[in-house]
Structure formats: structure tokens, C-alpha cells
Amino acid sequence: MDSISPKAPLAIANQVPATCMGLHIRRASRIVTQVYDAALRPIGLEVNQLTLLVAVHLLETVPITQLAQELFADQTTVTRNIKLLEKRGLVAINPGEDRRMKLVSLTVEGQAILEQALPIWEQVQAELMQHFGKQKWQTLLSLLSEVKNLS
């Protein structure tokens, strides 16, 4: 393990804005989220909701615990967001074999909104890819996919 830098803590703070990976990833995440959210707003979705709907669609009937694991997300946060989608009639939550297990599935309305959302998502993807260029896009996706190896 590296020893603590002999620099004074406040001198180190000067490096944070230019070099902190956490700061840059969080800022980029907020900006990209705003782009997707603005595009999805006319159909009443946010990108995190779209992500959940896609995951439920792909996994079909899925326990909330598995959904959280697949998304590398906190189970409490996933549960809260799934309940919001349930209120809108986009997903159904049913008990599993064990009453403690909650199974999530798309409703007909959820499938319909997903069908509306995916062309919007494709358009945003195309715009972002055009902004970055195909090579940088692929590099960025590759680098970001490596982050999951940290957990």
C-alpha cells in the first residue's frame, strides 16, 4: 500500500478538480443523464426508468434482488424505483415462491411505453455517437465497462 503523501492535505485538494476520476465520472453521468431525460420527457420517462424497464424486459419475470445485482444498484433504490413504475402501471410486482421474494414483470402498458421509448433512446445514442465520433464512443464504452471489475 502506498504511504500517505507528505503534501499538506489542502495542497492535495488543488489536484482534485483536474484529476479526480469520481468527480469527472459523476459530472459526465449527470450531463448524459440530462440529455436522455430531456429526450424521454415527452413520454414521461427518465433514463433510469428506461434502464429498469429494459432490464425487466430482458430478464422477464425477475426477483428485485436479482434486478439490483444485474444493475450494480442498491436494492432499496431499485425497489423504490420499481414501486414508482408499478404506480404508473408499467410493471407488476408479485410474490415469488417465498413470500419475501418479489417478482417484477412488465405489464402491457410497460411493454407499450418501452416500445415508444426505444426509438427515442436510439436517436439519443446516434446523437451522442456523432458528438464523440465512433472511435471515441467505442473507447469510452470499453473503458466504462472495465469499471465493473472494481467491485
Task: Characterise the protein shown here.
- This protein has a three-stranded antiparallel sheet.
- It is built from eight helices and three strands.
- The chain is mostly helical and 151 residues long.
- It has one domain: Arc Repressor Mutant, subunit A, CATH 1.10.10.
Keywords:
151 residues; single chain; 8 helices; three-stranded antiparallel β-sheet; Arc Repressor Mutant, subunit A; mainly alpha; 67% helix; globular; 3 strands
Low-confidence stretches: none
Let me know the average pLDDT. 91
What fraction of the residues are assigned to beta strands by DSSP? 5-15%
| Rounded Rg | 19 Å
The outline comes out as: globular
> How many distinct domains?
1
The CATH class label is: Mainly Alpha
In the CATH hierarchy, the third-tier topology is known as Arc Repressor Mutant, subunit A
Helical content stands at: 55-70%
Q: Report the count of strand segments.
A: 3
- The helix tally amounts to 8
- What order do the helices and strands follow? HHHHEHHEEHH
Whole-Å distance between the termini? 19 Å
CATH superfamily: Winged helix-like DNA-binding domain superfamily/Winged helix DNA-binding domain
Main beta sheet: strand number and arrangement? 3 strands, antiparallel
Strand order of the largest sheet: 1-3-2
* Structural class label: mainly alpha
CATH architecture group name = Orthogonal Bundle
